[in-house]
Amino acid sequence: MLEQILASLDESEREAIDEEELQVLERVESELVTFPSEPSHLLPILQHIQARHGYLPKLALRLVADYVGVAIGKVYGIATFYNQFRFNPPGRNPIKVCLGTACHVKGGDIILENFERRLGIREGETTADREYSLERVACIGCCALAPAVVVGDKVEAYVTPSKVEGIITEIEVRKEMAAREQKKNETANG
Amino acid sequence: MSEKIVTITVDGKKITAPEGAWLLPVCLEHDIYIPSLCWLKEMDDPPASCRLCLVEIEGLPEPVASCRCPVREGMVVRTNSDEILKLRQVAFRLLVSTNDGHCNTCIANRSCELQQIAKFLHQPLRTKRLRHIDRDYPEIIDDHPVLMYEPKKCVLCGRCVYVCSQNERGYKLDFAKRGMDTIISFYGSDIDPAAKECADCLACTEICPVGALSSKEKWRRFIAEVRLKQEQKKQKPS
Ligand code: SF4
Ligand code: FES
Fold first, then answer.
1. Does this model's pTM top 0.80?
2. How many CB atoms lie within 10 A of CB B139?
3. B206-222 residue pLDDT tens
4. Chain A residues touching residue B186 (CB < 8 angstroms)
5. Which residues on B lie below 8 Å from A81 (Cβ)?
6. Ligand 2 atom 3: residue of nearest CA
7. Would you state the pLDDT for residue B67?
8. Which of B33, B53, B80 delimits the end of a domain?
């Protein structure tokens, strides 16, 4: 199934699929057979892919659409109705901006906008290097810390636009340090 | 199937119709105009989402959507009371408050059903009575290989989704997202070979009451004409 779909793509479309995505697709294809191929199993299948792989790649939706016999446009329509599904791979630093009532009142939407501008992606997207992904969530249970943001599994409290800058810088610095550390180890070992 | 014929009164006029038929088409057949966007006569199960077709029925506490109201013997209907006009106007204003068509440069100008309904309800196409909500979408979406979509003109009536579902072939259109973000989506049409077959159908572009969906080919020709006219105007010394 996957092979045929890949063969039907244009050269440029095929090239747009990276190694990581290809692996996800191959696994999705083999996992699909554990579900009955009926439209009524569409949602459980989507939930499974989301839980197992963290997002629904476009070609996975195509696989699922063919498998249960529902057009891909419909599958997407159904999937986008729910907040639980993502269509871009999660970044190494997933950023979740809370827009629950308290955070919203405290300007969570401005914080989200700040992240969007800083990272150059929209909510629901992932940066091209897969370093960051941005998401809005509804109430993380930290209303007293509003506006709150979850970076990875760490909660950031009372976030302000300057703190947005600080959060990203901190991640970048840590990344830089880890890279240097690795290089040092390599030269020491080598 | 033996159909019982019943008599009803609409705006003081006695008309006959098969029992259980939807009220809206019955009225239209008898030259009683009721505005509608989301309804099509082929639909067995009208969505009743636009709320433009509201009417009053004697004995019922609230106005009802005539597109989903079955005809019953002796029913007394009013389609033209002040109350009904007001309610339809509210529905219309809500609709256009997220709408952003530019009639002058729109492919549907003058054949647009929204323009016609605006006239019938004495409402401007840009309402000042509700805050305008600019939906966060681009002017045009051209993901589909054959179709051109202009989300800011779309009234989300769902007619295109319906006619598309009636066709066996082709890529299947559907609504995506929800609430204020609801949109007709073409996701996956780039990797679905069936999308190219849409060129032989285009039923959705014909049924769209506004100018939100058109074939790319027609759209491009139209825009070229518009540009040409604009150029000519500029060059003419006035
Ligand atoms: S594209 Fe046209 S037919 Fe489809 S929902 Fe929008 S307005 Fe209705
Ligand atoms: S035509 Fe009845 S609600 Fe739209």
1. yes
2. 10
3. 999 999 999 999 999 99
4. 73
5. 176-178
6. B48
7. 97
8. B80
